[in-house]
């Protein structure tokens, strides 16, 4: 790869002093020619030549003055370019920050919209549930366990939520107690655990309930180690009337709970 040619200094503007000296020399020459005796017969010719040379010198000087590149302050040019570069970098940083803020705001908005969609879905589920329960066209049914949900709490503990409903006797208060029992297998043998065993409290009383149309009753149960649960039974013992029992598979009850009321 060949070395770049050495940089040449920029052309300099003509020096007014030197140009003036050239013009003065031409004028002096013209004056000297005018001093030649007319007797020689060449005085007028010399004078004309001197005037022509003077005109040529002035013309060359004028053309050089117009066409010669003007000397510039390189430091000022560099400073102006640096200032322009700094301004563009500042604008780029501002635009990048604005874009970042817009993206963050858009993510927040998307998250808020997702939450609102979830809430709307829950509200729609609630409305559908209430319509089925107390609507004018709702099917009449007595006391029952509409849904049973189970959620692990770590270790052998499980939290349950039982949704109790009735719309047969509208306006009448239903009260009583809820208990659970469990069927499962351990070491290849079928086992059934009572409410007292699930609560690990001898003589444990059921959970109280009292409602007109529906109520959610919550509590905790403990499963023995090594037990594979298969089915869970909910038993309602109302203050008046016969007990009601409903069974749910463990897989159904332990599945992910739906949003809002069932």
Biggest pleated sheet? 5 strands, antiparallel
CATH architecture descriptor name of the largest domain: Sandwich
- Give the topology string: H per helix, E per strand: HHHEEEEHEEEEH
Give me the number of helical elements: 5
Q: Which stretches are low in confidence, meaning pLDDT under 50 for 5 or more residues running? A: 1-14, 33-40, 257-262
Q: What is the share of helical residues?
A: 40-55%
CATH topology call of the largest domain: Immunoglobulin-like
Task: Name the beta content range.
Answer: 25-35%
Mean pLDDT metric: 78
Measured distance between first and last alpha carbons? 81 Å
Radius of gyration, taken over Cα atoms and rounded to an integer in Å: 53 Å
User: What oligomeric state do the depicted chains represent?
Assistant: single chain
> What is the total tally of β strands?
8
The structural domain count equals 3
CATH class of the largest domain: Mainly Beta
Structural class: alpha+beta
Shape: rod-shaped
Pfam family, one: DUF6776
Organism: Cognatiluteimonas sedimenti
Keywords: Membrane, Transmembrane, Transmembrane helix
InterPro entries: DUF6776
């Amino acid at each position: 790869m060949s070395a770049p040619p050495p940089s040449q200094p920029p052309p300099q503007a003509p020096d007014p002093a030197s140009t003036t000296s050239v013009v003065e020399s031409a004028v002096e020459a013209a004056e000297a020619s005018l001093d030649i005796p007319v007797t020689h017969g060449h005085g007028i010719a010399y004078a004309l030549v001197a005037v022509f040379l003077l005109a040529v010198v002035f013309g060359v000087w004028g053309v050089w003055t117009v066409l010669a590149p003007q000397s510039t302050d390189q430091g000022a040019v560099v400073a102006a370019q640096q200032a322009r570069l700094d301004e563009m970098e500042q604008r780029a940083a501002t635009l990048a920050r604005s874009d970042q803020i817009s993206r963050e705001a858009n993510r927040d908005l998307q998250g808020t919209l997702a939450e609102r969609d979830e809430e709307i879905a829950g509200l729609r589920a609630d409305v559908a549930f209430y319509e089925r329960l107390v609507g004018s066209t709702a099917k009449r049914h007595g006391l029952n366990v509409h849904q049973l949900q189970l959620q692990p709490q770590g270790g052998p503990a499980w939290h349950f939520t039982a949704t109790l409903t009735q719309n047969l006797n509208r306006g009448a208060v239903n009260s009583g107690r809820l208990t659970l029992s469990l069927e499962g297998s351990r070491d290849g043998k079928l086992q059934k655990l009572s409410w007292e065993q699930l609560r690990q409290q001898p003589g444990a009383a059921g959970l109280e309930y009292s409602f007109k149309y529906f109520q959610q009753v919550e509590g905790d149960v403990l499963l023995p180690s090594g037990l594979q649960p298969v089915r869970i039974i909910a038993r309602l013992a109302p203050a008046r009337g016969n007990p009601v029992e409903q069974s749910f598979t463990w897989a159904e009850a332990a599945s992910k709970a739906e949003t809002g009321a069932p």
